[in-house]
Amino acid sequence: MDLSDLRQSYTKDSFSESDLLESPFAQFELWFREAEQCDLEEPNAMCLATADANGLPSTRVVLLKDFSENGLTFYTNYQSRKAAELEANPQAAANFLWLPLQRQVNVIGRVERVTKAESLKYFLSRPFSSQLGAWASPQSQIITSRSILETKLDQMKRKFAEGKVPLPDNWGGYRIVPESFEFWQGRANRLHDRFMYQRDKSGQWRAQRLAP
């Protein structure tokens, strides 16, 4: 396929030094709220990049489920590929692409497990079907057919017919503790606005403009 002519011009907005908030957490929250307001489907979807102990990378889209100055939290099966890579190499990057706003945010940082209490609180907030799915799927493992999943799901429906589903031992959250934020605003002529926040020696966040 020749995709050389597939392009768009980014002219919706600009992003200058005077627009920068002091905290990258406040800047992220502002942009996230604006993404919500433009009716973007799943604004909390982020492309999560991890790598194994040998540096072999992998990516997948997951959903951000909590954000604060402590970091960005998502949930998964602790026996999945992403979890195995995070246990071996607890560093990750997350990219948010908000095309209607012609914006991206990239966050890089170390990764830690959230507490079991945090995982339980979120798990109990999930729909009943999603709770069952966490029990039914051996995430990232090879299976011979979809019927294996459907059979397992039927078993879980019978097992937890009363509606009380406990937190699986192999399921919970991870938190990305940011070491850098990059905010990207598309501009005309591919001269995009890019700013990276990093901590200085005193621990304060500082933003610098990057060439596009």
Automatic annotation (TrEMBL):
* Cofactors named for this entry: FMN
Q: What is its EC number?
A: 1.4.3.5
Could you tell me the keywords of this UniProt record?
Answer: Flavoprotein, FMN, Oxidoreductase
Q: Where is the Pyridoxine 5'-phosphate oxidase dimerisation C-terminal domain?
A: 171-212
Q: Which domain of life is it from?
A: Bacteria
The answer to whether keyword tRNA processing applies is no
**Entries under InterPro entries matching the protein:** Pyridox_Oxase, Pyridox_Oxase_CS, Pyridox_Oxase_N, Pyridoxamine_oxidase_dimer_C, Split_barrel_FMN-bd
Where the record annotates domain Pyridoxamine 5'-phosphate oxidase N-terminal, the positions are 37-156
List the Pfam families hit by this protein, alphabetically: PNP_phzG_C (PF10590), PNPOx_N (PF01243)
Task: Name any one GO molecular function.
Answer: pyridoxamine phosphate oxidase activity
Q: Which family does it belong to?
A: Belongs to the pyridoxamine 5'-phosphate oxidase family.
Q: Which PANTHER family match?
A: PYRIDOXINE-5'-PHOSPHATE OXIDASE, PYRIDOXINE-5-PHOSPHATE OXIDASE
- This protein is called Pyridoxamine 5'-phosphate oxidase
Report the gene name: pdxH
